[in-house]
Design brief:
disordered C terminus, Thrombin, subunit H
Length: about 300
């Protein structure tokens, strides 16, 4: 009995639904521009849902757009970062090239300004020491190019002498080495003395020996090579006076400390004097001055 009744109820439900739908269609067709009671009810129920779904859709669209924009920004930032690294490397390389060009230009100007025969050399290694900071500077010139004792100079001034030659390299005895000595003079007072290196842990230092009390030195005085007693050209910068201890009442010589002009830590290119300047022509200046029979000979 339950089977036929169930089927009868289903048929009745479908028939009722169909009749209601037909009635609604007939009412809508009769008054198409007006909303019926049912239409208004359906709209009242569905409008909030539709608005909520629309808002969710807009928010999802905005989030998707922001994500796409963020991806583009990250890509652009990565591109800018790589370009920045590349441009900084190119700038550093350009600065390095400009600095090297300037150094080489100064080396060429120095070579053209002195009458001695020189060759250029490059520093290839620097060894340090606790006594005077740098123990050995090695050049890329060796046997067949340089020999022991040849002066080494830069546009900043006196560097030292070739100390040892082995194969294709040579070591420099720096001006701050205690074994180094060179005749120097002070242009301001015309005082003369022998400059020697001083060992120590307080930087690069030299001292002038045999500078007589009558030719006083002052802090800041420039010290130049005299060109006497060595193959160093005349008037090369050596350093500046940084400390003076005046001679006592019975003392003959002053104690003078000198800081070299050359920055030995940053040596890159140097000139090696392979032949001294030619001797002065005695007939170029016919003036003769007799040397005093005794006493100190004034340096001119």
């Amino acid at each position: 009995m339950s089977g036929p009744r169930q089927k009868l109820r289903e048929v009745a439900t479908v028939a009722a639904t169909a009749l209601v739908a037909l009635f609604l269609l007939r009412q809508s067709a009769r008054h198409p521009g007006e909303l019926g009671m049912l239409d208004r009810g359906v709209l009242a129920v569905l409008s909030p849902v539709q608005g909520a779904l629309s808002s969710v859709g807009r928010n999802i669209g905005n989030l998707a757009g922001r994500y796409v924009d963020l991806v583009h920004v990250r890509t652009e930032n990565e591109t800018f970062r790589r370009d920045n690294i590349r441009l900084r490397a190119e700038l550093l390389e350009a600065k390095r090239g400009a600095s090297e060009t300037a150094r080489l230009q100064r080396i060429l100007e120095l070579r053209d300004s002195i009458t001695a025969e020189t060759i250029a050399a490059r520093v290839i290694s620097v060894d340090t020491s606790p006594y005077f900071r740098i123990a050995r500077v090695t050049l890329d010139r060796g046997e067949g190019s340089v020999t022991r004792g040849m002066p080494v100079i830069t546009p900043e001034g006196v560097v030292g002498r070739i100390d040892r030659v082995a194969g294709s390299t040579a070591d420099i005895q720096l001006a701050v080495d205690p074994r180094f000595a060179i005749d120097v003079f002070l242009p301001r007072s015309r005082g003369r003395g022998i400059l020697r290196g001083k060992a120590g842990e307080n930087g690069f230092r030299c001292a002038i020996e045999y500078l007589v009390r009558g030719q006083p030195a002052e802090v800041g005085d420039q010290v130049m090579s005299s060109g006497l007693g060595s193959n160093f050209p005349r008037d090369l910068p050596v350093g500046r006076v940084t400390r003076v201890i005046k001679a006592g009442t019975n003392g003959l010589y002053q104690e003078v400390e000198v800081t070299p002009d050359v920055d030995f830590v940053r040596l890159s290119e140097v000139l090696v004097v392979v032949a001294p300047p030619p001797a002065a022509d005695p007939e170029a200046n016919p003036r003769r001055t007799a040397a005093p029979a005794r006493g100190v000979v004034m340096y001119r």
